[in-house]
Design brief:
With 124 residues, this protein is of the alpha+beta class. The chain has one domain: Aspartate Aminotransferase, domain 1. It contains four helices and six strands, in the order ααββββαββα. A six-stranded antiparallel beta sheet has the order 1-2-3-4-6-5. Strand 3 and strand 4 form a beta hairpin. The longest helix has 17 residues. The radius of gyration is 14 Å and the shape is globular.
Length: 124
């Protein structure tokens, strides 16, 4: 990240490596279209969508970006994610590869549906 710590998602994207900005803009547009009323916040220096619980986040790194949905969503899409690098917390997208728009959109929709259905007050 370049310069001071960002306080908005737009600032975060502008501060990201130039090579990653198109990916971040694309992911942001997908997430915003899926959760237009969610609160946008920078938490732990990462863009979050919250409604009021955690929905998803994304982040920029030197050579890739990540999309971080809920753990339940990653598990739900486990078979489709086999060809991607993942951890228990995120999907990694190298900048030299295309953003898997349809997959990220469906994962984000799953997050919104499952988080909205929860009855507990936990943020995560």
């Amino acid at each position: 990240m370049k310069g001071k710590k960002p306080t908005t998602i737009a600032e975060y994207i502008r501060a990201a490596p130039d090579v990653g900005q198109p990916h971040l803009k694309q992911i942001y547009a997908i997430l915003k279209s899926v959760a237009p009323d969610a609160e946008e916040a920078i938490k732990w220096n990462t863009p979050f969508f919250v409604e009021p619980r955690f929905l998803f986040a994304f982040a920029a790194f030197k050579s890739h970006c990540t999309f971080a949905p809920t753990a339940a969503t990653l598990e739900h899409f486990r078979k489709e994610l086999k060809k991607y690098r993942t951890t228990k917390n995120y999907l990694q997208v190298p900048y030299e590869e295309e953003v898997p728009e349809d997959l990220i959109r469906r994962m984000a929709q799953h997050c919104v549906a499952t988080v909205s259905a929860r009855e507990d007050d936990s943020f995560w």
